[in-house]
């Protein structure tokens, strides 16, 4: 899983994770009455085999999952099969019953170890979450400080701009005052032109004649100046020059209309948004997480040697020339969560131009068990037809894919020089075919398609597979 998925898993209570994993494993098991019961017993053998591989690889989560599937299959589901009490499977029932206690014990042991592991992961998640929250708080404070600093800087820039504008205005006023002062000075330097004095004959009443006092030229000038004459313009005495207005004070007080500098109140912290987790319980979150994990598991790669189809066709050549189908079992090793096909096993069989039926499967199983091989599908020829899955092929492959979601069907069509690697579409094709109760060749709806080319198959030129002919 990716880091985000791991974080989600680790955040869940360990007990809820165990419960979700158990429920998911149990829920993935189902049986079809149309599939022979011996196939299910064989599936149990391979479930146990794969679980042991995962244990050896220390993948305890997958091992636990498969052990739970095993117990669910044989304790809850298989007893509902109509052939469960058949005498033909009495030996298989005894083998399973003898194994169940061991399987239960292994599952319980792994469960206890997983619980310890999950508890450690959960504790680590809590610590990392505390660190994450502290870092988020630190970032919030830093962002607050940055925003405050930016606001102060913006305010300072605005003040400097206004000061610059005012300084330019004052400079313009000074210039205008200087021009006015210059004009006034020039006006004061011009001489005052006075009109000549006016001579008048004073008429006095017949009073005793007294000799008037002698007036100075200044008195005469003032008297004459204050008299009006139609022909004489008014004369300004003691002409006063306009005084220049006083220059403004060098100290300038700037009154800003943009308000005071912004401040941040650190006494109260913004409320942290609360997440309502009541709408999605931890168990549901765990189930979702493990469902995603199993979706990824269903895409485990099946690695096929590139030379495998040609090797198989060379062994089938005699039947092909007789227009008889031949089939074989694809057997693989499970390593690092991938299946690598190492053997193609041809069991005893009976073939026709359009079908093939295996016989004496015990020999096949015995050979597989000696090498701990896992069945990952089957391969067969279409001597005269193209590569596709017929209605009979669909039912044959359904039993393989119900046992193992990654199971593949390889169809070799030598006449058309083509090979197809197919699987039933999941869930539509798998569900439709498993519910179908018809046998032999019969039509199926083709839309939506019931099968498709495999997307999880990887061809490898460097690998080879052994062809084992048990016929």
What would you say about this model in short?
The chain is 49% helix and 13% strand. It is built from 11 helices and 11 strands.
Which value, in Å, is the CA radius of gyration? 53 Å
Indicate the mean pLDDT.
Answer: 83
- The proportion of residues forming helix, as a percent range, comes to 40-55%
Number of strands: 11
Number of discrete helical segments: 11
Strand content: 5-15%
Distance between the termini: 44 Å
Low-confidence spans: 214-262, 269-273
Give the ordered list of helices and strands. Answer: HHHHHHHEHEEEEHEHEEHEEE
The helix/strand class is alpha/beta
Biggest sheet descriptor: 9 strands, mixed
Backbone shape: elongated
Give a verbal description of the structure.
The protein has 471 residues and is of the alpha/beta class. Helices cover 49% and strands 13% of the residues. The chain contains 11 helices and 11 strands. The strands form 2 sheets. Strands 1, 2, 3, 6, 7, 8, 9, 10 and 11 form a 9-stranded mixed sheet that branches. A hairpin with a 2-residue loop joins strand 4 and strand 5. The protein is elongated. It starts with a helix and ends with a strand.
């Amino acid at each position: 899983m990716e880091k985000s998925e791991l974080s989600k898993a680790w955040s869940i209570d360990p007990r809820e994770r165990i419960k979700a994993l158990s429920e998911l494993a149990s829920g993935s098991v189902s049986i079809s009455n149309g599939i022979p019961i011996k196939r299910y017993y064989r599936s149990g053998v391979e479930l146990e085999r794969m679980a042991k591989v995962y244990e050896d690889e220390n993948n305890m989560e997958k091992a636990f999952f498969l052990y739970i599937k095993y117990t669910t299959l044989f304790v809850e589901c298989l007893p509902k099969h109509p052939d469960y009490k058949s005498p033909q499977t009495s030996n298989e029932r005894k083998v399973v019953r003898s194994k169940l206690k061991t399987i239960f014990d292994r599952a319980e042991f792994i469960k206890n170890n997983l619980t310890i592991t999950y508890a450690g992961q959960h504790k680590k998640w809590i610590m990392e979450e505390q660190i994450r929250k502290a870092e988020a708080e630190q970032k919030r404070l830093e962002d607050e400080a940055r925003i405050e600093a930016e606001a102060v800087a913006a305010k300072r820039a605005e003040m400097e701009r206004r000061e610059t504008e005012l300084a330019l205005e004052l400079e313009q006023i000074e210039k205008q005052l200087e021009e006015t002062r210059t004009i006034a000075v020039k006006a004061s330097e011009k001489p005052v032109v006075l009109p000549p004095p006016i001579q008048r004959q004073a008429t006095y009443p017949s009073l005793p004649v007294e000799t008037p006092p002698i007036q100075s030229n200044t008195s005469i000038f003032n008297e004459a100046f204050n008299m009006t004459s139609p022909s004489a313009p008014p004369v300004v005495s003691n002409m006063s020059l306009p005084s220049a207005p006083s220059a403004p004070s060098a100290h300038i007080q700037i009154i800003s209309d943009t308000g005071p500098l912004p401040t941040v109140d650190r006494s109260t912290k913004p409320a942290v948004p609360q997440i309502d987790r009541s709408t999605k319980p931890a168990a549901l979150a765990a189930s979702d997480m493990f469902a995603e994990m199993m979706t990824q598991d269903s895409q485990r790669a099946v690695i096929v040697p590139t030379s495998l189809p040609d090797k198989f066709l060379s062994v089938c050549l005699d039947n092909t020339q007789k227009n008889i189908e031949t089939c074989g079992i694809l057997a693989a090793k499970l390593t690092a969560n991938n299946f690598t096909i190492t053997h193609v096993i041809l069991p005893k069989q009976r073939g026709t131009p359009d079908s093939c039926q295996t016989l004496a499967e015990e020999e096949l199983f015995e050979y597989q068990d000696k090498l701990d091989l896992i069945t990952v599908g089957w391969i067969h020829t279409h001597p005269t037809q193209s590569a596709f899955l017929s209605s009979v092929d669909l039912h044959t492959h359904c039993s393989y894919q119900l046992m193992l979601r990654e199971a593949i069907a390889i169809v070799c069509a030598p006449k058309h020089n083509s090979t197809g690697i197919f699987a039933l579409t999941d869930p539509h094709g798998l569900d439709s075919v498993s519910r179908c109760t018809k046998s032999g060749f019969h039509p199926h709806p083709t839309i939506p398609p019931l099968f498709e080319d495999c997307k999880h198959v990887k061809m490898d030129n460097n690998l080879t597979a052994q062809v084992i002919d048990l016929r």
